[in-house]
Amino acid sequence: MAHLKRWLTAGIAIPILIYIIGFGPRWLFQFLLFVASCICLHEFFRLTSSKLPWVPRALAFVLCFFFLALFSQGAILPAFALLCCTVMICLSFYLFSDPELRKRAIEDTATVALGFLYIGLPLSLLVLVDRATRGNVWIFFLLTVIFFGDTAAFYCGRLLGRHKLYVAVSPGKTWEGAVGGFVISVLGGVFFSQIFGLHNSVWTIAMVSGVLSIAGQVGDLAESMIKRNYGVKDSGTILPGHGGFLDRVDALLFAIPVFYGFLILRGME
After folding, report:
1. Model-level pTM?
2. What HEC string does 82-130 produce?
3. Cα dist from 249 to 48, 88, 119, 246, 254, whole Å
4. Hey, which of 91, 166, 171, 250 would disulfide with 223, CB 3.0 to 4.6 Å?
5. Which residue pairs from 23-31 have beta carbons closer than 8 angstroms and sit at least 24 positions apart in sequence?
């Protein structure tokens, strides 16, 4: 039943993503990123700081909105100035709060900043990728590499897994699953690139796909560490068969900055 729910969810989500990223108006794509950022941040705060007051919590959501808006106009430096202002506003909120709340000023402000840097900023970078030449096709490439690898790692681990990868953090993950995910990520990335003519060098695409796969698997383990630290199995239940939104995009969050760096190095227009 869990596998059926997993594939049904994917069967509904994939056509929606194809339309929004490939053919929809760009404001709709940016709105999707904002909604995804808010849901993931909500799950992150529920995991790490359930008693976080509404003011700093709201600041994180507002920061995501303005980063997406500014990045959509290519205004990168003002966006980071806004991040500094958000930290200042958050600390000022605790400065004028009651004494008991002031004791949590550093911890809560750090949670807000980390939540945005971990979730909001990587998703916002996709707006910059989207602005590049054939940006939406590059986004599909990234999603192919990460989601193919994630699916392959899951099923290779289930069918072939014998050697545990990192028991202390994620007891269910195996080396067989990790290797299977890596191989399918590389093959999927190369195949996609060849079909859509993204890059002349197969070896470059294979290398990039491999690096993205590793980054994604580390991101998956990082979220597993967070959940294990707080004794939680899934970040949420919003996606049947997948858990929470954060469970679905954890690998993507680590892969996006690496991918953006690759596009910058190749002279992203």
Report:
1. 0.91
2. HHHHHHHHHHHHHHCCCHHHHCCHHHHHHHHHHHHHHHHHHHHHHHHHH
3. 17, 29, 9, 5, 9
4. 250
5. 26/72, 26/130, 29/127, 29/130, 29/136, 30/68, 30/69, 30/72, 30/127
Encoding tokens for residue 187?
């093959």
* Token duo for residue 141: 């490439």
Phi, psi of 164 (to 5 degrees): -65, 140
Largest CA distance in the chain: 61
The phi and psi torsions of 239 (rounded to 5 degrees) equal: -110, 105
Residues 132/165, Cβ–Cβ less than 8 Å: no
> What residues are paired with 164 via a beta bridge?
174
Question: 175 pLDDT exceeds 70?
Answer: yes
Task: Give me the amino acid identity at 188.
Answer: G
CA distance 152 to 220: 14
Cβ neighbours, 10 Å, residue 10: 17
Query: Over the stretch 228-262, which tens digit does the pLDDT of each residue have?
Result: 888 887 776 666 555 688 988 999 999 999 999 99
The string over 70-87, giving b where at least 16 C-beta atoms fall within 10 Å of a residue's C-beta and e elsewhere, is bbbeeeeeebeeebeebb
Q: Which two tokens stand for residue 124?
A: 């916002």
Q: Which two tokens stand for residue 192?
A: 């996609």
- Torsions phi, psi of 223, nearest 5? -70, -35
Residue reference for tokens 């597993």: 224
Q: What is the dihedral of CA 180, 183, 186, 188, to 10 degrees?
A: -60
CA 243 to chain centre: 15
